[in-house]
Specification:
This protein is an alpha/beta fold. A hairpin with a 2-residue loop joins strand 1 and strand 2.
């Protein structure tokens, strides 16, 4: 029953874990709108609404969140597990069943970091009966499905983990993660790992420093830069995201030597990372640091972001777009385009602009 590595200090409190069947997919998408105070309701009403009672016949689970908000959470989600979930309650981790009102398909709507309420049902077994509104979230489209997949909730930072080499630095992936962070209300931090393999950081990192994104150069192998990052994260919560093989699990081990998460080396033949973490999972580290480790990705989809609003997620483009000759300028080919002029004049980094164009084309084709 290990999810993304060992479960330190875990205590399972429901049935025989050997009888549990691992679901085909974990972290299923949340049929979710943005949660607000208007979503707050009682548990009983939410259950009636989800189950289609006549008094709430207008409720449509295809367009509204099949969730309800509980005002008094007493636990936090560590990792969803199909229709079950690992929950941190006090100083112990428990495996809980999840109320039907929080289930869509074969999985719950829960994500690591969700604040929930658990109660005991028959035979003293714990049951998740409510979930509080999310302060922030990191989400993307579910693979193969037009639905949202929430990877983490209620975090302060998105740590974009990259490698200086093996695998190579991918600026386009960083740009997409920056968009996810902005859309979810999360502050980004760029961590460039494996600095022991190079003489200097990738040149593209200067573009992100210019945007005001904190950049930490480090090596989980030698410990270089780890103390500075640990100090910055002290007392904070974050989610790790990045390409497979960049060292997300290694970073957790480096920040807190008490952890021994499984890690793998990059393939020598392909220079690509191998997946070690298979599901998002929340970890409590020393110095009050809470980090959610997520599976490595090779591509990042964008949820509910239209091509026409993409420029709003590129601040350097948005800052000058008011000078364009056309209100609906795409900043790709139009005459009198202030953005193209800025790119040619060096005011906007060419790499960032090229990334904007590639992402815009992908959104237009979707």
């Amino acid at each position: 029953m290990e999810c993304g590595g060992k479960l330190p200090h875990s205590k399972l409190m429901i049935g025989d874990e050997s009888k549990l069947k691992k679901p085909r997919k974990q972290n299923r998408p949340v049929r979710n709108r943005r949660w607000s105070e208007d979503d707050i309701d009682t548990v009983s009403r939410a259950r009636r609404r989800f189950r289609g009672h006549e008094e709430d016949a207008a409720y449509n689970p295809e367009t509204e969140a099949a969730v309800f908000v509980e005002e008094n959470p007493n636990a936090v989600v560590v990792s969803p597990y199909g229709k079950l979930a690992f929950i941190q309650s006090g100083d112990v981790e428990v495996l809980c069943e999840v109320d039907d009102a929080l289930i869509t398909g074969k999985s719950s709507v829960l994500a690591p970091g969700d604040r929930v309420r658990i109660e005991e049902k028959g035979e003293g077994k714990p049951l998740v009966v409510g979930v509080a509104g999310r302060r922030t979230k990191l989400s993307r489209p579910a693979v193969g499905r037009v639905q949202e997949q929430v990877l983490a909730a209620n975090v302060d930072f998105l740590l974009i983990i990259t490698a200086a080499a093996r695998p190579p630095f991918r600026a386009g992936l960083v740009d997409r993660f920056l968009i996810l962070a902005d859309a979810g209300g999360v502050s980004p931090i760029l961590c460039v790992n494996k600095m022991d393999l190079v003489d200097a950081p990738p040149q593209e990192t200067e573009n992100y420093r210019a945007l005001g994104v904190p950049v930490f150069e480090m090596s989980c192998e030698t410990g270089h830069g780890i103390d500075a990052l640990r100090e910055a994260l002290s007392g904070k919560s974050g989610v790790l995201a990045g390409h497979s093989g960049v060292g997300k699990s290694s970073l957790i081990n480096a920040l807190d030597p008490g952890f021994e998460l499984d890690t793998q080396n990059v393939s020598d033949s392909s220079n690509k990372g191998r997946h070690t973490t298979t599901t998002a999972r929340r970890h409590e580290l020393a110095d009050g640091i809470t980090l959610i480790d997520t599976p490595g990705v090779r591509e990042v989809g964008l949820w509910k972001i239209d091509a026409t609003e993409l420029n709003l997620y590129f601040s350097e483009i948005s800052d000058v777009s008011g000078g364009c000759g056309f209100r609906d300028c795409t900043h790709t080919h139009e005459p009198k385009c202030a953005v193209l002029t800025a790119v040619e004049g060096g005011g906007i980094a060419r790499a960032r602009y090229d990334s904007y164009v590639r992402i815009r084309e992908s959104l237009e084709e979707a």
